[in-house]
Design goal:
The chain has about 325 residues and is α/β, with parallel strands linked by helices. It has one domain: Rossmann fold. The chain is built from nine helices and nine strands. The protein has a nine-stranded mixed β-sheet with strand order 1-2-3-5-4-6-7-8-9, with helices on both faces. Helix 4 links the parallel strand 6 and strand 7.
């Protein structure tokens, strides 16, 4: 379990492991697994008894234009006995190499080798099964990727937690259906053409405005720029195809918890309301789409939360952790 692991950029006791993957047309490809393992405290030793999630592995998948840096989230799980792992997917964050198109993928199923390599390094089988229970945790685009993977691997996860998963196109399902044929044709011919987008950096500003000075979150702007990475046509086609699959129903057998802000605000200009709402997704549409994930879906709407509910102002963040703790305790208790 220790061979190849080195100290991570987040500092001790976080560690990282580079996972070589098959080359693609841009050269060598890797993913990077980050871990935080529980350490039995002296108090726990004297009080005795197993921690509630002592047989749980958590695998976290980040969103678009993102990477793993949420140390508070890792501590939440480890303090309850779980082993926490986070995967920087190919061409993101720790896994981005010179000459690569940041974040680009032509099919979300192409992340299966990244996830399989991570699961193997975690001591599980490549299909996710193992002696310990698996919790999949996905944020935004990572939530879409995790949901699709879980549907293809029905026996793997004991539970799934999604933090503002990108399950539907922001401009509605009808727009998604209308643009799909155009995306299909364009992506076959010129997949790396740029997709139009406008990002004024307001989401990053909102996170900075509500940051906790007593427990700061350190973000590398090279890996998570204030304005989103360039979006390419082939990547957008992969996302829209994922949304279409969700709209048809994924039939996920594991229980799913979806954490969302109570409302959305369009980021057309800076306003303090952007510090109390999701300025990335239309949360009402996401809530409706989430009902198609499987037969057991819990939707938690959190007043005042940002797109990443765990980076919200303290009161909304505390509410998100309380609700996630309540749900996971109920679903994973034995």
């Amino acid at each position: 379990m220790t061979e190849g692991w080195v100290p991570d950029v987040l500092g001790k006791p976080f560690e990282q492991l580079t996972l070589p993957l098959p080359d693609d047309d841009e050269g060598a490809v890797v993913a990077t697994l980050v871990r935080l393992l529980p350490r039995r405290s002296l108090a726990a030793f004297f009080t005795g008894g197993p921690q509630p999630f002592a047989d749980v592995d958590v695998l976290y998948l980040h969103g678009w234009s993102d990477y793993f840096f949420q140390t508070r989230l890792a501590r939440f799980w480890v303090e309850r006995g779980a082993r926490f792992y986070a995967l920087d997917l190919r061409k993101y964050g720790r896994s981005l190499r010179a000459g690569q198109t940041p974040g680009y993928i032509g099919d979300l199923a192409d992340y299966d080798p990244d996830i399989a390599a991570a699961l193997t390094a975690m001591g599980r089988r490549a299909d996710g099964t193992g002696e310990r229970r698996l919790v999949l945790f996905g944020h935004s685009t990572g939530g879409l990727t995790a949901s699709l993977w879980a549907a293809r691997h029905p026996d793997a996860a004991a539970a799934i937690v999604l933090n503002s998963p990108w399950l539907e196109f922001q401009l509605s399902a009808s727009v998604r259906q209308a643009i799909t044929p155009v995306l299909d044709i364009h992506s076959r011919r010129r997949p790396l053409d740029l997709w139009p987008q406008v990002d004024g950096g307001f989401y990053a500003r909102a996170q900075a405005e509500v940051a906790d000075p007593d427990d700061p979150v350190q973000v590398d702007p090279a890996w998570r720029p204030e304005r989103s990475l360039p979006v390419h046509v082939g990547w957008m086609r992969a996302i829209v195809a994922g949304h279409a699959a969700v709209s048809k129903g994924l039939g996920i057998s594991a229980p799913v918890c979806v954490l969302l802000s109570a409302r959305s605000v369009a980021p057309t200009r800076w306003d303090d309301e952007l510090t109390r709402a999701d300025s990335v997704l239309v949360v009402d549409d996401i809530a409706r789409a989430a009902l198609r994930l499987g037969s057991s879906v819990t939707i938690e709407r959190i007043d005042g939360a940002l797109h990443d509910v765990f980076l919200s102002r303290p009161e909304a963040r505390a509410e998100a952790y309380e609700r996630m703790g309540r749900w996971t305790t109920a679903m994973l208790s034995r």
